[in-house]
Structures are given as C-alpha cells and as structure tokens.
## 1
Amino acid sequence: MFSEIDSKYAYDGSDLGAVYSKDKTVFKVWAPLAENIVIRLYHTCKDEKPYRNLPMEKGKNGVWAKTVFGNLDGVYYTYLVTNEGVEQETIDIYAKSAGVNGAMGMVIDLEKCNPAGWDSQTYVPLEHYTDACLYELHIRDFSIDPSGNFCYKGRFLAFIEKGLVNAAGDSVGIDHLKELGITHVHLMPAYDYATVDESDVHHPQFNWGYDPQNYNVPEGSYSTNPFDGKSRVAEFKRMVYALHKEGIGVIMDVVYNHTYATADSCFTKTFPCYYYRQWDGKKNLYSNGSGCGNELATERAMVRKYIIDSLVYWMTEYKIDGFRFDLMGLYDNETINEAYRRLHEINPNVIMYGEGWTGGDTPLPWEKRCMKLNARFTPDVAYFSDDFRDTVKGNNFENKQKGYVNGAQGSEDYVKEIMSGRIPHPQLPNLDKYSWTDTPAQTVNYVEAHDNLTLWDKLYYTNSTDSVEKRIKMDKLAAAMVFLAQGIPFIQAGQEFLRSKPFPGGMAFDHNSYKSPDAINSLKWNRKSEYKDVFNYYKGLIALRKAHSAFRMYDKAQIAEDLYYLDNLPQHVVGFILKNDNIFEETVVFLNPNDYPVKLHAFGEYGVYVDGCYAGTEPIRMVCGDYEMDGISAIVLGRKREEIFENDAVTD
Ligand code: CA
C-alpha cells in the first residue's frame, strides 16, 4: 500500500522542519497526499490565536515549503494540515523545541542555547563496546528525593550540581557517578513524552517516559520552565556538558517503536496511516507489537529517514554518545544497520544496544526483526542478555524462582556460557545452540534494570528467610558476575546501594513502577552510606574491570584462546583462567554460590583482588598453595608479570 508512496515520493533532503537563520526561516513538511497546509505562528505557547497564517506551497516529492523572512527565533508554530477534506492542527514532527505539553513547535536559534565552552567538548572515547560500564538512570529519580539535597530536584540541571552530600557526608549526584567510575549514563526517556502534565510540574507526577510525543524535543517537565521552549534545550545541553566534563558519556533511551497517541499523533495528522504498521494492508488495522496501541513502520522509506534524522540530530546537536533502543524487535534490521553506519561516521565511539524482543505480535517478518536471536544480522549493535539476568538471579517473571547466586542448583554450564559472553566456546560444545552472537560486544550483561524487580527486592522474594547479610553476599556475587563476565556490564542506578522499590509497609515490592510515586522510584541517597560496603564493592569491581583488558575481550577468537574453564572444582563452583591481560600474567576467577566455604589450591603466589568483602585494583592479601574461599562469593586472583620476573630472577 505504501511502497508506491515510497517509490514515487521518498525525499532525501536534510531540510525538513523549520530551518532557522537570523534573517529567514524555511519551513518544509513532507506530506504528499495532503490537500492543503497552512503555517500558524504564535507569540507564546499560551496564545489561542495565531498572529499569522501562511499558506505553504507543494513542491517536488510531496514536500510543502514556505520561507518566512525576518528573525523568528522563539516564535511558536503549528501546521494546519488538510487530509481527506479534514483540517487538523498539529505540531511539526521535526520540531526542535516545543511549548508546554509539546503542543506547538518552536523556531529556535539553537546556537544561543549552547553553554559557554560547548564547542570545545566532544564525545567520550570508547574503543570497544566491552570497555563501557553502563548505568541506567531516570532523570527525576536522580534528584527528587530530599536526601540528595539538590536545588534542581527532578530537573536536567541537577546534573550540574557538584559538591553535594547526603546526611552522612557521602557524595551524591554527579560526584557520585564519577566516584563509582561508570563510563556512560544511560538516560531513560528524556525526549518529550506525553503523560506528565508540564503545566503543573509543582504537583508531583511521575512516568518513566515510554510514551513518546515529540521525538526531537527534550521533555519539558525536566526543564525549569516548560512554557519556554528554550529552557528545555539549553538545560539539556548543560546536563550533557556537565557529564562530559566528568568524562561520562550520555546514552539516550529512544522509543521510535511506538507513540503515545495513534489517531491524534502528529504523525497521523501529517500523513494518516503512513507512519504506523497495519495488518493485512488494511489502513486502519494498526498492529500493536509494542503493547502500547501502535508500532512505527520503520521499514518505510520516510519513517526510516525520520528515525535516522532524529538520531543524527541528537548526536550532532546535543552530542549524545550512544543510543538504547526500546523493543528493538520492532525495528527492521536495515534501519538499525543504516542508523549505525550514519552515527558511526559522525562519532566512531558511538554505542548502540537495545531490547531484542517485541511487546506483542507484529507484521514485520521474523527475519527482519532486530530480535536477540537475529543478532548476527546487526553485528554492530548489542542486545540485552535476559539469559544472563535469569541465570544469575532466577526467572524475572517468577518472583520466587532462584538463580545461581541465590540457590538454584545445576546451572554451572549455563553460568560458564554467560560468563564467556553468550558466544560459542570450545569447552562448551553442547551449548553452542543457545549462543545468539559471535562477539561479546553484542551482549549486555545485567541483573537489574528499570523493568521488573530490583535485584535486592528479587532476593527478598527468593530468600525471605535468609538474613540481610546473606542476601548482601548474593547481591555482591551477582555484581561480580556482571563486571567479571565477557560482554558489556550494565547496572540500574542505585543498584550499587541495594535499590529497593517497596510499597508502603515494606513487605511487597513494585515490579512495574512506570507511574508509581517518587517515594517508590526515587534514589534514596542515604542508602549509599547505609550500604557503603556494597557501594565500595561495586566501585572496586568497576575499577578492576577498567584496569584489566582480560575482562574486556572483544572477539570470539580471543575468548576461545584466552578464557579457559577449570575442571575438578568443588560442587557448583565455576572457575576460569584469563590470559593475555595488559597487567596480569594470569588471572583466575572463582564463583562459589554454596553457602559454605570451599577449599582451593593456587599453583604459585597470587594477589587476591576480589573476595566476598572487597574488590579493587590493589591486592588484599596473597595466596599460595591451599586456601579457602568464602561461601556465596567471588574471588579474583592475579599474578603480575613483574612478580613472575622477580621469581624467575630468584630461581636463576
Ligand atoms: Ca512532555
């Protein structure tokens, strides 16, 4: 139905939207079947009547255009579009900023929104995906709780607040991120979403933001003035700049897979039905592979172009370092591969990853979907490893089901498979059939994300009769697995201080807090001090991973060669040796999920860099010969090259 439209009208110009210059603004809209389009200009986003109505003219490829002379910086605008005899007012799908609640677009001089020094900074370096340590964060959660002592609670600008501490004097906010050592913050939806009323931000409201309204506009409720379209743009940039100054990359969670509205969305009003998939070629039979009422038809020429234009815009205008794709199974692989190609041209350090599944059935053919099991068709994009998550802590959807760290038995082979990055490994031939990638750079290893129970809450359900101390050991073992596994480590904000989302009363926990109140969702900064030992453990694991290349191998051959699983270990214990590290001659890792200590033997003298209590880049003690490993813990032994040289010298 729409392939004809694509072959007849597809447009490849990079000038759609309102292109601003000081003496004129050129408006362009792609709407090949529209009967008429009028631009409406408004002085403020509260005006009910436009101060000018300007008819557009239809040109080649179905692109409507109009040049308006004069300096339009700060002017709000909409389009009055007539389709099939019906006239509807809509925001420009390419709008770069918007008034309150995203109803009107804004013509904006973007350069004026740049903070001082903006042009001199750039993307963070990332040689290989496996060098990243990802940290998923919701902008409001970060700063809304009083324990953080932020001025800009719930706002983009909370990221510029340095020097803040909690009640115990421990750093919070951006200083905390720096102290923890993560490489990239992955921001949950920060584009303009629909369900928080921006006109009433002093009344507490919460949403994760997976309800997109305007893809190229920052969310207004995170700005200090949602009524001024410049505020959200300027403050978003200040946030990115503040993170870049600390060496932290910024990843945007993008949701081009569906929109909040369907019949009333700006896409439908501009070109009815074109942007969404339908079943059986029936115009109004929208498919719902997102579970949210619609899905974008990423495979159509001008939808693909829209998505890629939008990604490129965020990367160039806001210096975004990478992207996380929601329900990536609803994207066709050609779109994702082309997006990577374009983004990588601009920023060779870009990282792209996503959820390799859908939220329902879709007409998109299986082999074209960016599903985890199709990962090999999109070799430059990583996928969340739900296999990793479920193997470590138990099935995500069965509250009481256990995993390796909390009491499941007999999963050692699967543990080996996930620890080597979910790729075929020569020592695990029977598990090859479960591997869905050939490179650890495609595997995002995690045990907790915004969806479902936090790790700490899951451990409460699976091990409610165990002591807090014992559950902390399980948490630490799970964290050790995330950071010592081949692949890309990912944690949710606050996981490093046992994030919890209790319902009032504290005996049940929220597994889907997408619109729950701040009391459930916010980061409670005093927990950092309460569980300082856990925080230090995460911090130490991150530092160790960053310091040693053996934990960050990036191809299959390297892992086949340099990661070797050990046999004849105590029951349930998994152990492996890593070779060819940049510092250690040999690295040995053991995971002991048993709640009792086990006896091990070191063939030579090694430093202990991780045990059940401590993790870091300095050895806690040395072991040689027989030694004991604590119950429910990980241990990392390392032997440095120079130590071997010293020993050799003595022997000679
Ligand atoms: Ca909004």
## 2
Amino acid sequence: MSKNYLCEDWKKSMQLSFDFNHMMADFAADARAAVRSNLRKIAHTLEGKELDKVQASIAKLSDPPGRLLKKNFIEPRDLSQLADRLSAAHDAVQSARGCVDKMMMWTELPYNQAQVVADINETAKAIREKFENFVVLGIGGSALGPAMVQQAMNNLRYNEQCACRRSGPKLYIEDNVDPERMVSLLNLLDLDKTCFNVISKSGNTSETMSQFLIISDLLKQRYGKAYGEHLVVTTDAAKGNLNKIGKADGLKMFVVPDGVGGRFSELCPVGLLAAAVTGIDIEEMLAGAAAMDERCKNADYMKNPALFAAGAMYAAMDKGMNIHVMMPYADSLKFMADWYAQLWAESLGKNVRRDGTPCAAGQTPVKALGVTDQHSQVQLYTEGPDDKVITFLRVGQFRSQITIPVGCSEFPDVAFLCGKTLNQLLDAELSSTEYALLKAAKPSWRVTLPEVNAYTLGQLMYFFEMQTAYMGELLDIDAFNQPGVEEGKNAAYALLGRKGYENKAVELNARPEADPRYVL
Ligand code: PA5
C-alpha cells in the first residue's frame, strides 16, 4: 500500500474544505444583490415572457428589509454573541479527551491503536486468504460505520465483481433481523467459504445476539467445536454475554475500547476489521482522523471547522432550523448520510440537560442523495417551510470519468450535453441546487473532499464526531448516552421474556387492548 499520508504535500492536497458562505446573511445579501443588479442590466434588452421571467427573479431576490435573510441565515454577530459559549464548548471537549468516564476515548483512536492495527491487518490477511465471504452481524453503531466505509472506499458494485478484481472477500453487512433477509443470505452463502464478524459493544443486543445464535448454531452443526474458525467477535473487553461466550469458546476477539460508544466506534476494530478485510488502508484512515483532530483542537472558532460548524448549526436551530439534511453528491458517500444520521440523532436528541432540567434538544437528520433527490425532495427544500439546513458533500476528483458522447445534433436541447463529462454534470447540478436554495433564501453549506480515499474519509468522520461533541456542549446535554434506545431495548427484552425484566413486562402489559374505534 502506498503511504501517501506520510507526505506533507499530499496531505495538504487532500485537506477537506468547509464552505459556510451560503449560511451567512452577509454573503447571501451580497450574492443576491449582485445577481439582482445583473438581472436589471439585462432586463431592458428583453421583452415578453423572457422579461416577465427576469422580473419575477428580481422580485424573488428582493428581500424587503432583509426579512428572510435575517430570519433564515446567520449573521456574523450571531456567532460573535456565541463566542464565549463556543470557547467553553471547546475547552470542555478538549479537556475531556481520552476520558473513559465521559465516553471520550474515541478522541484517542487515531493515536493509540498501533498494536490493534497490526493484529487487525494480520487477521484480515488470513481472512482474505481463506474466505470468499465476510459477513458483519451488528446493528446501529456496530453496522452503519462498516457499511459507510465499504460504500465509500470500494467499487460501487464490489460484491458483483469477480474475485480477481476485488481486493478481498465479498462483504455483507447484516443490520436487521428481517427473516426474509436472513434466509436469503443463508441460501446464498457457502458456509465453508464464509467468515462472520459479530459486533456488539454491549454483547447483549437482542438483534445481534439472535443473529449470532442462528449463525453459530449452523456453524456448530457443521464444524463442531471448530466452529470458531469461521467467527470473529468484536465486543467489550470484559462485560456482556458475547464476551463471555467468546472467551468460553476460544473465539478470536477484538475489543471495543472502554469509553468508545457505538456511534463513535468506526475508527476502532468495529469498523477497522471489515475495512482491512476488503483491503482498505486503515492506517491512512486513522492518519486522516489525526489530521482533522489537529484542526479541531484550535480554540478559535474561525479556524476550527468542527467548532464553527457546531456554532453555525446551533445559531440556525435558534432560528427554527430543526431539520438537517445531509446530501452527498456522490454515490460513494451515500451511506455517510446514514452513518451521520445516527451520530447526530442519537447523540443530540435528548430530553434533559446535564443539570437534570427538561429540554427538547436535537435537530432531525434527513438523508438525501444528489442528484437523485433533486427530483424528489429538493422542491420541499426550496419552497417548503423555513426549517432546514442542507449540508452538501462534494467530491473534487472522482475515481472514474465518463464523457457524454456526441449525438442528437438535430436536437439542440439534448445536444448541449454532448462532450461534457458526467463529473461536470454532477458538479453543475450541485452548484445549481445551492443557487436555487440561496435564491429561495434557504441556508446550506458544503464540505469538499478533494477525492474519496481513506485519508479524506478519516477526516470527514472525525470532523462529524467533533462537531457532534461540540454541539452537545452547546446544547448542554450528554451527547454520549442513549436512554431512548435503551428504553426500547429493555421493552423488547421484557416482551420476549428475558430474565430480570419481569417488572418491565408488568409495565408493558398494563397497556389496554387497542380500542377498535381507532383500528380502521
Ligand atoms: O450508538 C449506540 O450506542 C447504539 O446505536 C449501538 O451501537 C446499537 O444499539 C448496538 O449496540 P451494541 O453494539 O451494544 O450491540
């Protein structure tokens, strides 16, 4: 593997950039005024329908006393008024780094895993040599990260490629207990050629443990005591049932470090093993995370992208922007929106502040994909309620390029596409959506990845984790627990008769039967 990330020039060229202009009222006002003035210049050359169109645009861009801009965009003073709180958020996050009790060990993952990485790479090599399929069994934070990295880094049709073109076994990430999905997988797999990685931080989650029971039963039937040759377990170092089973049966085990929560675990063995199995350079990914960490340590919010992003989003929420749309313009980043949705929703959706007072915190994440969702959701984003911020993920250089061939010259409304690349088309569509939003006075911002590689992906993940941590401080909530998820997990245990959950079963069974009037 090339060690590009050891070269400073390459690292510089791969630095992510964050453009918040389209969230800022001053920029939006200038941009809208400039467009208006240009339109006025051309208006007198037009007549009829063309003139009507331009006049309608001018009217849209005229924002009497800056009403919409003030309402929807952030003014520099909104941020300067937050300066003290941003500084406090910065200090709180930075001083909690590496603290297990505060679930802040994830900050250290780029630095403290040399031995683990060596073990992962060795295990991954052995798996690549021996198996044709690698199946991740997990849910939530134990599955979304591996799926996101696989989609970002490997060929978009990875599993459909022949083995000689793949950098590892086929990869399946099973994050549900839908029986049809499980049966279809089992019908597909040749057990002799399959290795399973069961991932559960708690080692107790019903969904993952059910999957484990089904798979280990099949493996035991075929291989007896040697069933562990087809299994790798990733779980807590000491706690949980998966840990106990793994130790008792002598299974190969990786540890989810103490102080690393599920949704912050992609950069530990939870995500690194699956990535390494498919040939991804996990050291490069960690180097990317370390580089972003440096940027996010800066106490000046104008120089710290995660702190600025948290401040901007907090200010936007203050203006009623309670929905956050994550819209990558690249299929490779499609599942980044899924991974991010969990990180943002589970971390920030809380009903108590840290001092115990009630609140209703959080911003609803929405997943979208450019350009696909331009033809589905963007109508709502441009003309619907003023309650959204759109984040675009843009890729500078794609790994493939395709030119639209010349043809249809007799149809100029089609022929204008000829000779352009799909890359140009995608980029033009992103810029046009951004512009349409600006014209409609809706805020957005964009993150540009010079390319999608392990280094830029590591930066992006770490950036979002830091933004979430800073946001948790601004909202004054615990961003690292998930009592709402636990409530559901406990209720499921009770319904399924788990020992120790009898009282929960009584609580649940107290519910009356459904009122037939409301069942239609
Ligand atoms: O972020 C979290 O903590 C959760 O989403 C968990 O990842 C999810 O509930 C699965 O838990 P576990 O890994 O313990 O099986």
## 3
Amino acid sequence: MYFELSEEQEMIRKAARDFAQNELKPGVIERDEHQKFPAEQVKMLAELGFLGMMVDPKYNGSGMDAVSYVLVMEELSKIDASASVVVSVNNSLVCFGLEAYGSEEQKEKYLKPLASGEKIGAFCLSEPEAGSDATSQRTTAIDMGDHYLLNGVKNWITNGTTASTYLVIAQTDKGKGHRGINALIVEKGMEGFTQGPKENKLGIRGSDTCSLMFNDVKVPKENRIGEDGFGFKFAMKTLDGGRIGIAAQALGIAAGAYELALNYSNERKAFGKPLSNHQAIQFKLADMATEIEAARLLCLKAAWLKDQGLPYAQASSMAKLYASQTAMKTTVEAVQIHGGYGFVKEYHVERLMRDAKITQIYEGTSEIQKIVISRELLR
Ligand code: CAA
C-alpha cells in the first residue's frame, strides 16, 4: 500500500488548482446567477488537456490516469461545479465510451475532436419516463437497413445545447428487453434533431442542461457503437467510470465548502474569541475533515482500480454514494458555520450547497448506487 502521489500527479493537481483559483473563481457567482455557460473557461480547459484526459495521445488525448482525473475534478469542483461537470461528462461518459467501444472510424471522426476539446460531447440516456429505470427506453431507433430512424425525447442532458456530438441510447427491438437497445452517435445539425431550452436549475446553473427531441432523424448504421443490442451494456459500463467523476465532483464541492468554513471560523469572532476556538465549531470541522478524507480515499481507490484494469463498478458506486452524501452534509454545515453570511451569495457556500444536491441525483441516484453495491455484495 502506497498513498503518495507521483510528481506528475502533483503537477496536474497544482495546474487544476491554479486554473480554478485564477480562471474559474473570478466570475463564478455571476455565471451561477445568470445561468451562463463557462464557454471561455471550457476552451482553456481544452488547452490544458483536461477534456480528453485519459484518452490515448494518438486520438488527441492527454494519456493521463484516472487518479489524475480525480485530482483535477476535485480541484475544479471546489470552485465551480458547473465547469467541472463539463469535464466529467466529456471525459468519462463520452470520450471513454468512444475509445473503449467505438470503431476505428468513429475514433478518427468523433473521438479526436472531443478529446482535444475542439468539440464537446453529451451522453443521452435519461428520458421523461426512464431515469433510474434505464432499460425502459421509449426513444426508438428502428433499423431501416443502411440507417436507424430515431424518434423520441431525452431529458436532463448535460452539455445539451453546447455539444456537437451526442451518444444517444435508444430501443431498437422492444421484445429483446435490454438486449434490444443501441447506442448511436448523433451529430448536432442532423435533420429532425432539436434541442429544448436550457433548464432553470437549483444548482450547477452554469451548466447547460436541456431536453433533446428526435423526429425521424436518420442516423447512419456506421454510427452505432458496438454490436447490435450492445447499447444498454455500453451505457452501464460507461456510467461505471462516470460515477468516479461525479464522486470526485462531490468530493471537491465538500472540500471547497470545508476550506471556506475553516478560514471563516479562524477569522470571525464570537463571544470574545475566534469561532474556531469554540468546541462546537471544532467538532463540526473534525467531522467534515474526516468524512472528506474518507470520500477522497474511496474516489482514489475506484480510480486506481480502473487504472489497474481491475473491476471498479462497485467501488465507483461506493465512492459516488459516500462522496455525494458528504457533499450534502458538509455544505449544509459550512453554511451553518457562516451563519447569516452563509446565506448570501458573496460567501460562496450557499452555491456549493445548491450544487451538492445534484451529485445525489445524476449518473444514478443514491438509491441506484445502493442497488449496484448490494448486487455485487450478493452476487
Ligand atoms: N457493466 C456491465 N454490464 C452491466 C452492468 C455494468 N455495470 N450493469 C448491468 N449490466 C448488465 C447486466 O449484467 C445484464 O446483462 P445480462 O442480462 O446479459 O446478464 C444487463 O446489463 C441488465 O442488467 P440489470 O438486469 O441489472 O438491469 P436493471 O434494469 O435491473 O438496471 C440499474 C440496473 C443498475 C438499476 C441500471 O438501470 C442503472 O444504472 N440505472 C441508473 C441509470 C443512470 O445512472 N441514469 C443517469 C443518467 S446519465 C446522466 O446523468 C448523465 C449526465 O448528463 C450527467
């Protein structure tokens, strides 16, 4: 057992931390308030190589490991979870899926511009009536010989309006259940494909989440990922890695709120001494720090397993479950420590508290993570 990061991993973490402080922090409150997508910042993240972090350099990726991905996600999410979700979805739900299961032609055409960050991708599984119950897809992809005819609606799609490339999960043969589902690469601009308005959300308000509508969209057969009927397993395998990213996002939100609370409790005085001299506050800080460290270890373990080529589905669900609970609990406590100041935007913690909630919902609710974990336990 070895807990040290390599020199390279330390450098990557520092680059992410500096970027978050210098480029994300200045406009984060305004972007949240006006639901403004961090377009300039996403371009800079692409230049840093953070949008295709784990992709092989031969496909324009940075060839970094999953541990580095966790470090970057934590640092970015301490400051701006709306920006970090773009990084997470592009890396683990889009680039990973294409690199692991796409054809050589798909990698050349679609993965390369996504890994370099020239283009942004979206992962489209959720529907108005199929969120947790992912096999109940109503979107249909009917086999027409040389193409699929795609019809239906997708909901809550991260990068929904800014993406150029969409990985869409759809039902081809209902009679075959999950084995009748396919994953198709859909390009923005294909006839019959439209995007709905940006959702007005509680948190991660800078991220553009919207619905997608497919009306007789002709998707060429060569845009199907993997064999016929592989779509559901494609989605599940991709989400296994995605959950490491969201777990690290939750970790970052918690760590960001904790750091703010720690600093505030040293500065602010009450009853003649700094807040941090009161045992009630010390106990809160001790709980927060301990839970954050446990969440960090779960995230790093899941990433390490992935890097070793070992099974990591259960570990990523454990990391996501625990880190998202920690994010929620820690941010609520951070607001409490700040008192009235915690309730106003200038102090950042109220935003982190709002952002924390989505980590218990997307890429599988906490209840879904418990299903995944317990199935592995009982297998
Ligand atoms: N890896 C590989 N295969 C898997 C798998 C995995 N992790 N999980 C399931 N499978 C396989 C099973 O082995 C089974 O295959 P066989 O029949 O060949 O054995 C098949 O898939 C069906 O599995 P289940 O019977 O377990 O399927 P289920 O209907 O009971 O569902 C579930 C399982 C875990 C609940 C799943 O539906 C799930 O994860 N739901 C949540 C979906 C989700 O995370 N949605 C979030 C949307 S994405 C998002 O939020 C993106 C964003 O924009 C941020």
